[in-house]
Amino acid sequence: MDAVEIPDWCRDVRRVAVLTGAGISTDSGIPDYRGPDGVWTRDPKLADAFTRDRFMADPQVRARFWHTYLGHAAWRAEPNAAHRALAELDRAGLAVRILTQNVDGLHQLAGIAPRKVLELHGSMRSVVCTGCRARSDAQATLDRVAAGESDPTCRDCGGILQLGVVLFGQYLDEDVLDQARRIAAASQLLLAVGSSLLVEPAASLCEVAVRAGARLVVVNRDPTPYDGLAAEVVREPIGTALPRIAAALTASATQRN
Fold first, then answer.
1. 3-state secondary structure of 64
2. What is the CATH number of the domain that holds 175?
3. Which residues are catalytic?
4. Which of 25, 169, 213, 229 has the fewest Cβ atoms nearer than 10 Å?
5. Which residues are annotated as a binding site for Zn(2+)?
6. Which residues sit in the known binding site?
């Protein structure tokens, strides 16, 4: 077997935080948002359905939102090589924590324990009532949509139902964000993977990590606002880059042992 090349920024790393965006899931058949074939690129007006104020005010917007998720590719998607590489890195004994902007649940399906995955923008696998705050499994609500309810309401209080995701104009959960900042600050290496790093405050976790002394490596097809802080910027496809990086980190940790 060929020796694994270990970059300097991989050495002496035991604590790894991974900030993941839509780009890590495109190989699983889930389109990103701002890429050449992204959701917003193909249909800019669809962003209205993902804006909190519009969603709450307009039943037609909510109907379009639910219809979009009814046939969402994530329901059929499987973890790809990048997701699996991170799960393997975790199994290798490094302290891995996932800070994901994605709502698809593929990190957990790849084998990362749910307690090690922080879903910054929520999860499409749950539904919350905006009135009584009751939570339920998303599939039950989607079944109602499939049966003809264009704008399903809460069966307990009649309130508007929302998929358990953070919409534009909606604040991230402060407890989740505080935990993400603590994880970023405690890491020795932060990998920012498949994210444009344009959406705040999630993107600012890169700066939090660097200020605390961590190394930042950006793995993304396009330039990001945080490339200047990075120890390395990787432009190769994520599905090949992450297995290579995970192998280097594992090899470095093994050498120390």
1. helix
2. 3.40.50.1220
3. 121
4. 213
5. 129, 132, 154, 157
6. 129, 132, 154, 157
Q: What is the mean pLDDT of the chain?
A: 92
What total number of domains does the chain contain? 2
Residue-wise pLDDT for 72-126, tens only, equals 889 999 999 999 999 999 999 999 999 999 999 999 999 999 999 999 999 999 9
Residue 145 shares a structural domain with residue 246: no
Q: Are residues 205 and 133 in the same domain?
A: no
What range defines the domain where residue 144 resides? 36-71+125-165
Q: Cα separation of 233 and 220, whole Å?
A: 8
For residues 179 and 55, membership in a common domain is answered with no
Question: pLDDT value at position 1?
Answer: 33
Specify the pLDDT at position 66. 93
Amino acid in position 55: F
Q: Are residues 257 and 188 in the same domain?
A: yes
Sheet holding 95-100, edge to edge: 117-119, 95-100, 15-20, 189-193, 215-219, 232-234
pLDDT at 158: 97
